[in-house]
Each structure stands twice: as structure tokens, then as C-alpha cells.
């Protein structure tokens, strides 16, 4: 496994803005960190389930169609390049307010089943970085735990640094986005070597 590419992809994709991180930040700003930890734990639990589903879905595809591995790798790389483009070309949507939503464990868990970023991330990371190297039940379970833990760390970080992180992103948004996009491009290219 290209470990550096895997770590870069997981970090960039997990810690860049998405539904989980933005909601965690908004909940922490509104309800406080203590009341947001349940939401973060729910995100992690739901993400764990999504990672397991993605693992077995990809494994099923690979076992039924062995030639799909190369196609899945290409699609994963293309998706990473698309994410890099979206990060660089994203526009500031200032003034949007997060709606009042339940910041519970269950809300965080259920969000994962309608979170396209999380589902596509799961399919991509499993197909591109994990299944070509690991296929045992234990390794799939272990990677699901690791990825869920990273998901918890990212939402918790956004909760913890809520308003500070928001100010940083608004002040240095274009520079931050360029660095994140370049890291994704590097990850996309390096999976072929």
C-alpha cells in the first residue's frame, strides 16, 4: 500500500469541509463542545458502518469482476482529481446559517447514510488503497475502525476549534484550498506507482 498517499488522501478528505465537519462546527458554536461530542461519536459510528458496507461492496465487485480493480483504481484517481478541482474552485458562501438540527448521536450516525462525500470517500479509499493489498475480514474491520476514528478526529477537531477554524479558513481560504488540492493531485497520481 502506498502509505503516504493513503494518509494524505484520508487526511485531506476527512479534514476538509463537508457535511460532518460543518455541522460539527455549527453545533459546537451553538450548543458548546460538550453537547456536540455525542454528534461526533454518532458520525464516527455511522462512518464505521459505511466503511464496512463499502468494503464488502467493493470486495463483492472485485470477486465477481476481477478486471474491475483497475477500473476502480482509475475511477478513484479521477474522483480525487475532481475533489481537488472542487476544492480549488470553491466559492465562499458567506452569510449562510446552519439550520437548527438535532446534534445527537443518532443524528450524526444517520447523516452518514445520506452524506455523498462520505460514501464516495468510502468507496474510493477502500477500492484504491485497501482492497488491492488487504482482503481478510480482520483487516477490513481494522481499516473501518481506523477510518471511523479519523472521522471522529476530524469532526471533533472542527467542533473544538469551531470559530477559530472558521476564521482561519475565511482568512486563508484560497491558500488552504490550493494546498489541499495539490495533496489530492499527488495522491491521485501516486496510486499508479
Helices, strands, pairings?
Layout: H1 3-15, H2 19-31, H3 33-64, H4 68-89, H5 105-111, H6 116-130, H7 137-160, H8 162-171, H9 173-190
Helix pairs in contact: 1-7, 1-9, 2-3, 2-7, 3-5, 3-6, 3-7, 4-6, 4-9
Keywords:
globular, mainly alpha, 193 residues
Number of strand elements: 0
Low-pLDDT stretches are 94-101
**What gross morphology would you assign?**
globular
Task: Report the portion of residues in β strands.
Answer: under 5%
Specify the biggest β-sheet. Answer: none
Distance between the termini: 10 Å
Oligomeric state of the chains in view? single chain
- Main structural class: mainly alpha
The radius of gyration over CA amounts to 17 Å
String of helices and strands = HHHHHHHHH
Tally of separate helices: 9
User: What helical percentage do the residues reach?
Assistant: over 70%
What is the residue-mean pLDDT, rounded to a whole number? 80
Give the tally of structural domains: 1
Task: Characterise the protein shown here.
- Helix 2 (19-31) packs antiparallel against helix 3 (33-64) and helix 3 (33-64) runs parallel beside helix 5.
- With 193 residues, the chain is an all-alpha fold.
- The chain has one domain (3-190).
- The chain has 9 helices and no strands.
- The model is unreliable at 94-101 (pLDDT under 50).
Task: Provide a quick synopsis of the model.
This protein is mainly alpha-helical and 193 residues long. Helices cover 80% and strands 0% of the residues. It has nine helices and no strands.
